[in-house]
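Lab notebook, design round three. We kept the backbone fixed and only want residue identities now. Task for the bench partner: fill in a sequence for the structure below.
Input structure tokens:
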């Protein structure tokens, strides 16, 4: 079957499923493989549950003409996504970065959807499977698709760009994330910059933070660009007004009061405003979109429970975001401040050094109480309370309950520190 024929089939059944537990009527099931599963073995089950077709790459599983045999299911999914991307009339806005990708993506979508029909990456489906699935969710009336791209090693962003072929792109920042896979901070800069490299090589448009010296220098001789700045009059100016606890800012004399905790969310808002301006979204609509946006999924959420004012930022963590969260929390107005920090993953040989640095920052900021959780934090030299596991923390707090106050909870996804809420 040619890609054109497969795409025609997809247009008749424009819903993709890769998990037999989530089969919907008349979808197309792509039998992906993983280290511990073979999707081909579940293809018949997908059809029995209502899938219209099953795309497989092991012909012995074919028992009817509702099976489409290809050379490689994942490669076929990716090629189909590129074909559909080029078939559609939608413009693709791509974004990557070490921190703030998902929040920025959602802010951009909130702003642009005020004027255009948009689709955007769901959750953080931003890898070699998630990006194709996002592209395949582009509908006939979609005008702009906002595609988030994640990476933990070199050439990954380059590959995702080759699938999505973006018309526009933005990098949130270069931070200490996935240092193990990228090979240090320089590797992070090189890897994330693959997005700008791709856009410039194809004469496409770049949005950037003109206060970020790395981004500015990379784009020095490139003309198809638009940047924001808090200080340089040569770029679109946005003023930071404050954070107590929510970010407030001003653009073109219009004040915007967000529902986002932390100064680190200021550039995320700026990126959404910048793109709104480029796509001619009225400033009143930009303002209302950003002011209405509320973070979800453990990302800088402000909660109240049993006398605690909680900043829940337990979706992910790396040294850059952890330091920013601690510094921001230290500036909040509260009589009593407590922090519970969980291990940061994927730091490779720098793990001990980076965890020690964060323990030192937490100690220097002088919080009323601080708890470090995880094997890496347990190995630090500090006077702060340390626990090898969450269960150890739980056992301690059952006998020594937290005193009420403002509470910051932050750690990598694998630490699942949102479980602290059950201990309050």
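Proposed sequence:
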């Amino acid at each position: 079957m040619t890609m054109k024929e497969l795409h025609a089939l997809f247009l008749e059944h424009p819903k993709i499923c890769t998990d037999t537990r989530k089969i919907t009527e008349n979808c197309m099931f792509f039998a992906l493989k993983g280290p511990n599963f073979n999707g081909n073995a579940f293809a018949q089950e997908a059809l029995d549950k209502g899938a219209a077709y099953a795309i497989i790459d092991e012909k012995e599983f074919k028992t009817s003409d509702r099976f489409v045999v290809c050379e490689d299911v994942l490669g076929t999914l990716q090629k189909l996504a590129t074909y559909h991307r080029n078939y559609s009339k939608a413009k693709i806005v791509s974004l990557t970065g070490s921190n703030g990708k998902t929040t920025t993506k959602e802010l951009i979508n909130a702003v642009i959807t005020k004027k255009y029909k948009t689709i955007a990456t769901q959750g953080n489906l931003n890898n070699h499977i998630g990006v194709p699935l996002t592209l395949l969710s582009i509908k006939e009336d979609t005008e702009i698709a906002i595609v988030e791209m994640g990476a933990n090693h070199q050439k990954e962003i380059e590959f995702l760009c080759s699938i999505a072929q973006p018309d526009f792109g933005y990098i949130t920042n270069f931070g200490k994330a996935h240092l193990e896979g990228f090979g240090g901070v320089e590797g992070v800069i090189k890897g994330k910059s693959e997005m700008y490299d791709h856009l410039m090589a194809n004469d496409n448009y770049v949005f950037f933070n003109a206060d970020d010296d790395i981004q500015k220098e990379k784009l020095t001789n490139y003309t198809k660009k638009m940047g924001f700045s808090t200080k340089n009059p040569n770029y679109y100016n946005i003023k930071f007004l404050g954070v107590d606890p929510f970010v407030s800012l001003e653009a073109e004399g219009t004040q915007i009061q967000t529902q986002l905790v932390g100064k680190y969310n200021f550039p995320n808002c700026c990126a959404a405003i910048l793109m709104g301006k480029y796509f001619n979204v009225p400033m009143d609509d930009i303002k209302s979109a950003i002011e209405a946006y509320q973070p979800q999924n453990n990302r800088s959420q402000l909660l109240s429970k049993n006398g605690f004012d909680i900043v829940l930022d337990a979706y992910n963590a790396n040294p850059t975001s952890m330091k920013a969260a601690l510094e921001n929390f230290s500036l909040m107005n509260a009589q009593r401040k407590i922090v519970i920090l969980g291990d940061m993953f994927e730091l490779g040989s720098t793990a001990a050094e980076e965890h020690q640095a964060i323990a030192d920052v937490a100690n220097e900021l002088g919080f009323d109480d601080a708890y470090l959780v995880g094997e890496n934090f347990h190995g630090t030299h500090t006077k702060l309370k340390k626990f090898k596991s969450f269960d150890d923390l739980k056992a301690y707090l059952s006998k020594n309950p937290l005193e009420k106050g403002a509470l910051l909870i932050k750690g990598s996804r694998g630490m699942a520190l949102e479980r602290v809420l059950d201990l309050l």
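Keep this in mind before ordering anything: The CA atoms of residues 97 and 172 lie 5 Å apart.
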